[in-house]
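subagent[fold] <- orchestrator: predict structure for attached chain, return tokens only, no commentary.
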Amino acid sequence: MTRDIFAIWNELDWRCSKLQTKPFQNGYLCRGLLSVTPRSKTQPKYIAYGAFDRDKDKAAEKAVSEMVERMAWYACLHALAARQISVAAFSTVGWAAHTSLEAAKLSSRGEYLERHFFEVLVRRLSQSQTPDSVCPCFRLMSRLEFDGIPSEGIIFGLEMSIKVPYEDIHLAYVFLCCALNDQDRAQSGVTFGMGHSDNENRARTNARIEAFLVTNAVKKLINNAAHDDQKKSLSKGEAEYFKNLYLDQRVLRRVTQLASTSRSSKKEHCGFCSWKPPELSVTLDLTVLLPDFLRRIDRHVCYTCPKNSNQALILGDFNVENRNLPH
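subagent[fold] -> orchestrator:
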């Protein structure tokens, strides 16, 4: 399989846009766009990447890390598909790249857990009754926290944060109730952002930034304002997923009720933040898969997934170091 992946790199024609950096919420947002064309195809696929940091240079460094991560993800996706291995659930969830191997592992694990619990939250918002009171994990956001953000369509923001039991990982989620349809301001819905870190405040900042970026992407879809490159992007499915959540009125009602409930008395625990870790998983160090032209960038790439999944069984064959994680 290792030979297959290295062969795949030779079959992919990559193009990368110039990084664009702009001020964003008391920091800098650095973004770029990859295009990749397999030699057997004529139409490119587009892969967006980017990062935020208070420091301009660090934002660029993080963006480059995400670029490497996305390239490794696509090469593995392409190699698995070439072997007729099911890749329906092989998303960018659980992928991370960093200048430090330990940081890449932590980020990969945090990304995996962050998305797992988000899916639990969505099910609870869609199916469960809203509790009469909630614990301190929920907090209404102040309008001051939208400073520097085009927030004219935001009605309120709700934030929750939890710590993963037995792990040095904090997860944070932001729910933004907003009106994004330029033709119908009476229509409102909820957009989301997720964040993780070994520091609670950083996790919250990451969730807030992602919420604003997701809101911007959903607004373009709602108003049919997406660029052609965005319509062809491999991340379009993710944007459509968040658009459908925005249009789900059950989610809107639940989040509105949670916001109202969060103003009242708090209790020690509530059903919305109870934690059940996912199935046994594995974190793979896939740095060995990078071709020479990416290794010169000096990044480590890690991927976390269910231990018994197809991709874990195949990619694990050439994992330099893996770490099984308990239930």
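orchestrator: received. Logging for downstream: The chain has nine helices and twelve strands. The first strand starts at residue 12 and ends at 16.
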